[in-house]
Amino acid sequence: xxxxxxxxxxxxxxxxxxxxxxxxxxxxxxxxxxxxxxxxxxxxxxxxxxxxxxxxxxxxxxxxxxxxxxxxxxxxxxxxxxxxxxxxxxxxxxxxxxxxxxxxxxxxxxxxxxxxxxxxxxxxxxxxxxxxxxxxxxxxxxxxxxxxxxxxxxxxxxxxxxxxxxxxxxxxxxxxxxxxxxxxxxxxxxxxxxxxxxxxxxxxxxxxxxxxxxxxxxxxxxxxxxxxxxxxxxxxxxxxxxxxxxxxxxxxxxxxxxxxxxxxxxxxxxxxxxxxxxxxxxxxxxxxxxxxxxxxxxxxxxxxxxxxxxxxxxxxxxxxxxxxxxxxxxxxxxxxxxxxxxxxxxxxxxxxxxxxxxxxxxxxxxxxxxxxxxxxxxxxxxxxxxxxxxxxxxxxxxxxxxxxxxxxxxxxxxxxxxxxxxxxxxxxxxxxxxxxxxxxxxxxxxxxxxxxxxxxxxxxxxxxxxxxxxxxxxxxxxxxxxxxxxxxxxxxxxxxxxxxxxxxxxxxxxxxxxxxxxxxxxxxxxxxxxxxxxxxxxxxxxxxxxxxxxxxxxxxxxxxxxxxxxxxxxxxxxxxxxxxxxxxxxxxxxxxxxxxxxxxxxx
Amino acid sequence: xxxxxxxxxxxxxxxxxxxxxxxxxxxxxxxxxxxxxxxxxxxxxxxxxxxxxxxxxxxxxxxxxxxxxxxxxxxxxxxxxxxxxxxxxxxxxxxxxxxxxxxxxxxxxxxxxxxxxxxxxxxxxxxxxxxxxxxxxxxxxxxxxxxxxxxxxxxxxxxxxxxxxxxxxxxxxxxxxxxxxxxxxxxxxxxxxxxxxxxxxxxxxxxxxxxxxxxxxxxxxxxxxxxxxxxxxxxxxxxxxxxxxxxxxxxxxxxxxxxxxxxxxxxxxxxxxxxxxxxxxxxxxxxxxxxxxxxxxxxxxxxxxxxxxxxxxxxxxxxxxxxxxxxxxxxxxxxxxxxxxxxxxxxxxxxxxxxxxxxxxxxxxxxxxxxxxxxxxxxxxxxxxxxxxxxxxxxxxxxxxxxxxxxxxxxxxxxxxxxxxxxxxxxxxxxxxxxxxxxxxxxxxxxxxxxxxxxxxxxxxxxxxxxxxxxxxxxxxxxxxxxxxxxxxxxxxxxxxxxxxxxxxxxxxxxxxxxxxxxxxxxxxxxxxxxxxxxxxxxxxxxxxxxxxxxxxxxxxxxxxxxxx
Lengths: 603, 565
Prior knowledge:
Chain B: Its main location: membrane. The complex is a heterodimer of chains A (603) and B (565). Chain A has helices at 2-18, 25-41, 85-118, 142-155, 163-169, 173-177, 205-212, 231-249, 253-262, 264-274, 280-309, 314-319, 325-342, 351-358, 361-386, 388-415, 419-440, 443-474, 485-488, 490-503, 510-525, 528-554, 571-589, 592-599; strands at 53-55, 58-60, 65-72, 77-83. Chain A is mainly α. The A-B interface holds A 71-77, 243, 254, 257-259, 261-262, 264-265, 268, 272-273, 285, 288-289, 292-293, 296-297, 299-304, 306-308, 330, 334 and B 317, 473, 477-480, 482, 485-486, 488-490, 492-493, 495-498, 500, 503-504, 506-508, 510-511, 514-515, 518, 522, 526, 554-555, 558-559, 562.
């Protein structure tokens, strides 16, 4: 099952790439990702007690499952996989995001195909999804979901707009096609009735029409090239998924390094090939160089640990308390430097905003949801596990950097004009919380770090999906050019609000536990840590400020020209986002089981 | 006086390789077959001997001059196999070509088993000497390459000999096994000077800085199959020589470690910085090869410290393993490149060196006649090759041929000009008017061509493109080209335990390397496909298979590269 979890996406990547000319390639990819997800999801079946016991002089039993095949003993390389509560949750998150990205991609491709067919008839193909699929969009998103249904129904009636919509949207053909919005009936937004007159600010409709009047895919994939939903992208996504899963499951340090490196090329290709044309090359190059620099430093640290302990078995080294005292600080410094690039920790974060902004939506989702987790997972389990003494010694430095990162990210986000960049920078802040919690080093801190890590992996991908949908609809990510989403696309605005609230740590949603306990863990240590806790708390306040600012710009106010006549959430999109919404709520309301999983993990 | 018994089984690979050379010299039109079969047999024999018990012969006291252990036979098999690959990539040549190639390979096989300084240097010279002729393409540029290679090589040989002499003076023996013992109480300054001169001279073959400057120039201008050989087998020769000397002879000498550390860091810095600005494929590979020479030398530097000297065995194994992975990747890259570049050698003797000059159809002699006299040997060798070419049936330059064939030849001469014309983008990117670019290309671009000409190769010729891509990614050290990753892991594992600062240098170099390997990989994948010849499919496929094999089962390489005393 362990091997399957890694092999299925990898085989799927090859299959999709091999069949890239076939129309069903996307669904093969989604299927492979789905099977991979199932394989990961089944891992807890038949797991051990979680307690370590000695058998034959070896400690065993702590891993749920374990598999080891010799590969290159001279290099200490063993194809050795193992899973426990900590790695399983992250592998599950990876697999989930992999499935969602593949499905997102497949739906995008289907929609494009439908657009190309229906463009002549000016059919509203982008939103022609059978109403039945709305059943799958089952998050408890009451009002929004109702609106989504309504919007979908409306959209499938091309050009025959009900009078109400014509009132609000104006007579622009593009606007009417893309689906009207029952602005006045949005119960989610507090202020209901916008006077019709305010729509005059929507500007001259004929002038706006060409902007949105892309004949095909007005609500789909606007500026991207024809290859945007190419099966090759799906293949690359699967490759990233396979390699990341391998990182989380690797029980051998050399294998861990190889898997860590294997993530790089597909991700580079995703950014480089499918990213935003203006910035992708630079961003991809920056991403690649930063990542390789980090991973080679990390490799040096790993191999120093291997040389010190004489084995590359991660579990064994952790159980024996890591490397010996003298080497500990060096090993930890090298490892932490490497993982800090990936995590990213201020001031090594500068690749991240560029990469996220330039990457396509699915790329950003994987970057935020998976790649950053590689860094934090490595920091918590590998760096912390291999060199606990070094970690303790270096904790103040890490904590100060993390707190600074939280503050800097918050302040920068307050002024950022672009939505994807803003979300990307907010990741720096969230990862700052994770690192701060880890640096605190107490049990509460480690759990908070793991929890915040996972929560960020659910919330930020959702934000990126939403931002991607928004950019695809409005063709702009500029906060200044957006506005009135609440009226133009209430369900989308509602989801965005939900995700933003989750991200800023509203109690009851996933983001809360990680950040609250980070502050608690830091404050628990007392002394100068209190100041760091205060800084983190202030950072959380800043997060609230900038996320609400984003919401104000995007959702509220009069409808901006760019947001005119955009379609609301389609059923397919809702289906893709639903698991993330559900997961966010679940983690927020019932954090207990997850914390139990963490507590039996090996650290 | 007792006559020593010679272990002929240990010598079998060398016998076979030498026999291949001699047979090729006399086999006439079957020279190519004789060369390839003989060398393949030598490789097989090396594997067979290597699988058996370790053998040694030519003993003086307890030290042997020729040893056939796993590492030696692995290296010998690799030398022979690389020469076979080059032979398969070479197309039609005169029979001298095959003789020279086989002779060079025989030198490599001898080098692998050499365990004393004299044998080592003689073997290395045997490996290098035929290359003076082989690198020289007829024409002025080719002659320049030959002259540069000759002068650099002779200089470095003299340096190495001087170093060997000093070490002999210090220790009283030339056997590598004896050096370790003999240098114990020797004069430290003498030892250091000897080690420095010897290692610097040997590192020339590896194209390590500071004796690296020949490599880009010679590789760029040599015929591509010969460039393949230079970049793979010849570099392996340098790596083997340095590794053997350091591991078997100088592993207790701290000054040797310092020398290697200097060579290594200088190579990494110079090679990477030089590669950053290259726009031609072969130049890029050549400069980056200098950096790789630095990575390969880096593990040997651990003997500079006392703590590292405990690690000397694993360190030398890592250096050797890196060299093996590296030359396999280089061979793959150059083989694929050879396959997709237009054939500029096939029989157009003098003309290809100066494609802009139209009046070369009839004359190899006229092509070489106007050389300055100081390059006498290269022009002579140009004649030698050319006369070989003239006898080749497919050359289109049969003696006294009709004027049509001359025309054909000059039409063929224009071939190197074609690719730049097909890719106007390249001209635009380099800035400046097209004419000047074309002119510059015609004068400076060797048979490897510009990187931009490889655009869209993926669509035009998937197999060579896949091999080239794999090799380039492997040279960058990234999965899924695991051969390169394993090489990097092998080096970093040693360095992380005993010389962390050098590991950081290697890591920094690899990061810079990414800055030029990734664009190269990108060029292969995207862009509109041009015409690309598709030749030597079998050779390229075999190179690709070899790379895939060592990627999946690195232990095959790591087993024989594990050095024992």
